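Worked example 2:
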Amino acid sequence: MVKRDPVTIYHNPKCSTSRQVLEMIEAAGRKPEVVEYLKTGWTKAQLKRLFADAGVTVRQALRAKASEAEELSLLDLRVSEAKLLDAMVAHPVLVERPFVVTPKGTRLCRPKESVRDLL
């Protein structure tokens, strides 16, 4: 039986953690809305709301492992959050993943097991 509460996952299918979180959501009987943000992109307002709801800073949501983070000199702690947001909008891969949104809250699901608290 599929539960009806809405679940949204901001997903990168190339990321093993993101794929595993999606599998965990589906295994819990949920049919999530899957947003492949590398295709759809982000807006600043969307990212600000997502990060605020998840209780993370822009810097905490930066995917520091992405080659673009180093190439764009974003790893320097003096880089402003505004500049980080601009870079995330221009290069969606810079956003850590996966973010999951349910009626129970919003979370950056790293480690992947943290998704259980939202289901």
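The chain has a mean pLDDT of 95. The helical segments are 16-27, 37-40, 44-54, 67-71, 81-90.
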